[in-house]
Fold each of these.
Amino acid sequence: MTPLPPDWQATFEAYNAAITRRQFFRSTTTGLGVAALSSLLGSRALAADASADTLRMAMTEPWKIAPKAKRAIYISLIGAPSQLDLFDYKPALRNRFKEDLKDYLGGQGERLTGMTAGQAQFPLAPSMFKFAQHGQSGMWISELLPNIAKMSNDLCFIRSMKTDAINHEPANQLVYTGSMQNGKASIGSWLSYGLGTLNADLPSFVVLHAKHSSPFSNVQAISSRLWGSGYLPGKHAGVSLRTQGDPVLYLNDAPGIPRELRRRMLDGLGELNRRSYAQIGDPEIQTRTQQYEMAFRMQTSVPELADLSGESAATYALYGEEARTRGTFASSALMARRLVERGVRFVQIFHRGWDQHGSLPRDLASQCKDVDQACYGLVQDLKQRGLLEDTLVIWGGEFGRTVYSQGTLTETNYGRDHHPRCFTIWMAGGGVKAGSVYGETDEMSYNIVKDPVHVRDLHATILHLMGIDHERLSFKAQGLDQRLTGVVPASVVKGLLA
């Protein structure tokens, strides 16, 4: 091993103290950058209506546009609910019960999952549920969602969603991070990064995991990649609130550590981190300091947030009595309202168990009962409090379900496999066109025949409603300007906007 030179320590300290080219431009953005912008703008920069905030945004936040929504709630139904049994009404299929679609599928060139590719037959399975038209749009909605049906005038339905993935993990990563590859930042993290926080005492991005009541459901496992920050600074990752015990782990001080001592400890750590950052310039040092400070503030804000005892009887009647039980979907929906009311930028509710490959009539009914009244209660509660206008609510899964049955088909039982070519979601509030239906599918809910909306188009539209130009919000990572919508063309869907 080559021995270190005698002056190695002085050399190392000099290296740490040296300012790099990247650090120089980062630290002088508001100096040289604003000066350069002023020279380009000339007298306009000095006009009476040109403020320091305008110059700062033009230099540091060029992706910002006029927002329709300040905050968002994403209700993520993991496993993919069947559009055929909930929203995409195809009454003519009742006359084609058990028709073998093997030749039809071959003509479509469809890629099938390993769960149905070996079936000898692909029997057509019409929905066994009743549908009725609702609201000014005349949207067909299943009997399984009576409460969502009665607020159809508040909703914007997209019947022509499509995706690239046919299996759960890549499909979930695509719909929640914009890519089927690992390591990408989630949509909530992008919103936190681009817009910042509305309440310094709470995280800008919070994740809730609702229990599913059906004991028979095929429950898909999910990972923190779906709410992780990827290459973005760690402070933008989603913070999970737990359904049992302390809402956030390790938030309480250890026994024998008074709050005053904790404050002095954090001040000491903060000073050490400031010195390290001055020498090295690693932004993760700042992230670590900010997380310590956020945790300290959350020690006061989270207990108040998690205490639902002050909610009125009328509120519980709106969401359903299950809202009184911590961890249920109804309780999570009520918590989502409390979070956005207190300034949390993005709330994501994960509800698993929507993967009905078999026993669909039984399990889908159970899942819908879990969420139907609470979704109605959430939208109406936001509306009554004057929050719906600038709160965007999104409801949906990662893909659709097949028109043919997986396994045995009977008059009262069937299952459906994964189907990426078309599915349905809905949105409410936050600048979307209420009481509308966008897109159409063919006679079998197999292909889109009008106004397709790719998952990336949905992302571009969500960012647009939240006040972000999806083509300009980027982050340099691994030598690339990373974006939520990636490099594949994506467009804001103007037909969804109010």
Amino acid sequence: MALPPSDADARRANAPVICYPNEGLPKPDLDLYRRARMNAQKTDEVLVPARDAKCFEVTAGHFFRITSVEGPQVGDLNLWNREDLSERFYSGKTRALHGTHLTTGERMWSSFPHMRPMATIIDDTLGWYGIDEYGGSVHDVIGTRCDPYTGNLLSGSQYHHCCHSNLTRALADHMGISLAEAEPAVHDVLNVFMCTGFTRDTGQYFMKASPVRPGDYLEFFAEIDLLGNLSACPGGDCSSEHSSDVAACYPLLVEVFAPDEDALAGWESPARNGYDRSHGR
């Protein structure tokens, strides 16, 4: 442990600076989206079984809702461009732009070189939660996904119904490809309904019992054609452990809604990022 220098307190006192001030981000037209949502008709639904995952598709300009049913349950969400799996959700940049947890009016951004909004959150029944006394909040983009590799590293286990494996199986089944082909496309997630943060003393990622209850939902507007994949985490409400056959787990419901044909008059799906990709050459 290095000894603190004489000016340690002064160095610690330096004020923080926001890395990516987001006032310049394109603002979603939530009023337009919500008007379009009012008369939208349900076109599809997928019930994601406990400790498993299912894929779903959403057309640009349509809506999808993830709802807790039967009992408190968190979910791990992957998103891709439906026509191009190389464009996928970029949790790290989403975190840099919006913060550690997402809520209404914030967006899920796609990977380089595309970097554009994939989906916008238009309604969040847990928006009241805020940040609690432990620094915890819901819908995080700081965790990755429970996976068999970390489980094997820490405990020597061979657990196959963690979210990474669930998402891999579901994508392989949906696309008609092998597990080996599907696995590299699975990526860091939006932890829907999960309540998480970092400990103040050690800076470790923590989880606590989710405040979600049956009937709570998170609803999105699809900015581009989407392929979604949702895992109902084997940790249930993540109050004690994940990657477990012991925790109480419940299904999650995904519903897709189509607005009236003229409800989004003037709206256009966002173009890919305008950087010229010359990289200084």
Amino acid sequence: MQQAIAIICAGGPAPGINTVISTVAKVFLKENYKVLGVHYGYQGLFAEEAPIKAFDFHHADRIFSRGGSTLIMSRFKPKTSDFKTTFFEKYNIKLLVTIGGDDTASTANRLTKFLKDKGLNIANIHVPKTIDNDLPLPGRNPTFGFHSAKDEGVKIGNTLYEDARTTESWLLMSSMGRSAGHLAFGIGTACHFPMIIIPEMFNNTPPTVDKIIKLLVSTIVKRQMLGIYYGVIIISEGVFHALSESELKNSGIKFTYDAHGHPELGNVSKANFFNVLLQEKLKQLGLDIKSRPNDVGYELRCCRPIGFDLTLCTLLGIGVHKLYQKGISGCIVSADAEGNISPIYLSDHEDENGKVKPRLVNMDSEIAKLCFRNLDYISKPDYQAVASLLEQPEEYDFHTILNWN
């Protein structure tokens, strides 16, 4: 029977998925492998009849620069009891290419061990994707999709900033980034936003609703003092997820709750959450300043990949073939700044609980220090100038709020 490789995509979309799929398909088709894409990720892989897409050159060639994924994605996380050998035996699979985050890679490791125990020696090579840029790749190399998502976010951010300037108003923009603030930081710095709020900022103090709202007021009042009556503030959704349950429940915002009594954070607009609380605070302070919320998330995930990601994803797809030829399995394919391909093993980055620690924005880096230093916010020299707007300006001091020296 003709040897075959299988490709699945799991998790959420990221620009460049189709580029990886296209490249992998083209490379292996040249060597007379059958290339099968499986819809619905792991759920499809273990279905009674796997929903497959058999690739030929023409389909692979049509999709390489498109956004989204030609393979339908799923967040299904299989238990070991869900594993089956049926698909792999039926199609004579020799390599499973998984595209996703660290959960997808960890599941692939478990699966290939299961298959080996059943007498099937099937290689696995994982291609890391996330617009959050939070996987611990060497040399802080970006995950594929990040730069394309950032570029799309910058287009939206610049438009919002132009709206704010044109109407002399404030806009509150939230961006994706559940664990790390790379996307918000990248968009905010590129757009010259006066304030950027990411979870990594709270390295010396736990985040609270009160601190976040005071940071928002700090930048609005500082610009007011400078005669600037507009701006856009970007908040990473990770800040919202970093708040304790008591903070969320005491915020006054209505939540829906799951069966365990936990607030269902996915049902809430992050920008609206903070904007409502900001408006209440401004009203308490007697400041007649209006702000509007704008969530940016799904607009970024399926955009067309920019040139950077087209090149990176092509390289990663070719890298899958290179590692497979060398007999390497159970790894993540990585490419450094010079284009060198190397394998990364999750076991080298797991904590004692088997979880991969996310890569965060390095607050000690020069870029972070310089960019945060040049945002607009109240500091000690401003106390007297803003006294007519704030009775206690020291409570809105950026460095005091964050406990930064």
Amino acid sequence: MLHTPHQSLQAAATVPVQRTPERDDQAGPWHGDAVCRRDEAGLFFAPSKEPTAARLSREQAAKRVCARCPVLVECREHALVMPEPYGVWGGLTAAERRVVLSRRRRAKTAAAAETPAEVSRIA
């Protein structure tokens, strides 16, 4: 984003930055096999002020691309580990990834709360 001399950098910092998928092999060995490399990035990331119906339609189209991708699992894990705040990654929207991360945190907390006696009793 270009700034005019009179535009404050602080104002620019408040605008959320939409990250696009890395387009080089440094993103991981899986990235070179991603089907989305051949598709338009706009399918995976929302334009500003996108109407809800258009967003849902675009996300479904992106998910169809992801469904045929041989590296869907690797992409999804990348988006969950980073975590990627925007776009469709690994067949999941940002909201769906937040749910997965929340469930993982709860499961990890529950597993940590179990005592060895409870674990041996279950086994």
